[in-house]
Amino acid sequence: MNNKKKIVIVGSANTDMVISADHFPLPGETLMGTNFMTNFGGKGANQAVAAARLGGQTVFIGKVGNDNFGTSIISNLESEGINVSHLYTTQEISTGVALITTIPSGENSIIVNAGANGQLTADDVRDSEEIIAEAGTVLMQLETPVAALTEAAKLGKKHGAFTVLNPAPASPLPHELLENIDLLIPNETEASSISGVEIKDESTAMEAISAIQGMGVKNVIITVGSKGAIAKVDGKMIMVPAFKVKAIDTTAAGDTFCGALCVALSEGKDIEAAIRFGNKASSVSVTRKGAQLSIPQRKELEM
Fold it and tell me: In which region does residue 50 sit, left (phi positive, over 0), alpha (psi from -120 to 50) or beta (all else)?
């Protein structure tokens, strides 16, 4: 890691609209719902909020629509102390939204419209080169176009940043992106999809890591939920157990882990300590409902 502290996050920002119902509607059926909520979401914005709340100097690069949802997202990120000078607004399409129906069993049904997130371009990222040049860490996910992420990874490497990709949701990854990534952080499902190795235990997780490293990524951390994380970093195998808590909602747990880990690395912690810090932050988030609502403040981890 270099000695630059700034964390630049390139990714998505959504408005989540959540409503509860007795059951999922059938075709043509109208239901009366309850407990409507509007939440801020998007994996990129979630990770930016996590990094900011946990003490990171955080910058967000993304795109929203010129609408009330976009204005609210910008205001929310600013209120978290996040630099949004490179969060672009487009007149051409609306802000990304997710329409979520939940039922008593805990299942949910989600329709996502990427909206402006899907319009983030490599040119937008090039226009942000000045801020990427100041970054110690560049953190990305896969809810924005791969061309933009590839450009961000290239610029990060050009300016000496440590580039991190959380490959969620899982999708094919071009070599041009992978060769510019210093650290990949998939969960078990994503790691299985990328590597072609079905992860069942520690042994198969290590097989998956080896397969991913064969694609050009030097360092890999696989998050394995309540079991913690398995990693191979700088040639060293590391297993870090999770903190034992009673989980009630795992929404944004992975995003919290990624944001927290990047903060720890920016502060000069070694990778094992950074993973432990990420585990601790995510263990707090799963004890609360919601996405950004569940992300802890730094002081909560130091109590």
Answer: alpha
Cα–Cα distance measured from residue 235 to residue 120, given in angstroms and rounded to the nearest whole number: 35
Alpha-carbon distance values, 14 to 9, 23, 36 (Å): 15, 25, 16
Phi, psi of 253 (to 5 degrees): -65, -45
Report which of residues 259 and 247 the model is more confident about. Answer: 259
Please say if 255 is a catalytic residue.
Answer: yes
Decide: 248 and 294 in contact? Cβ < 8 Å. Answer: no
Look up the pTM and report it.
Answer: 0.93
3-state secondary structure at position 100: strand
**Catalytic member of 16, 124, 182, 255:** 255
In degrees and rounded to multiples of 5, residue 64 shows phi and psi of -130, 165
End-to-end CA distance of the chain: 28
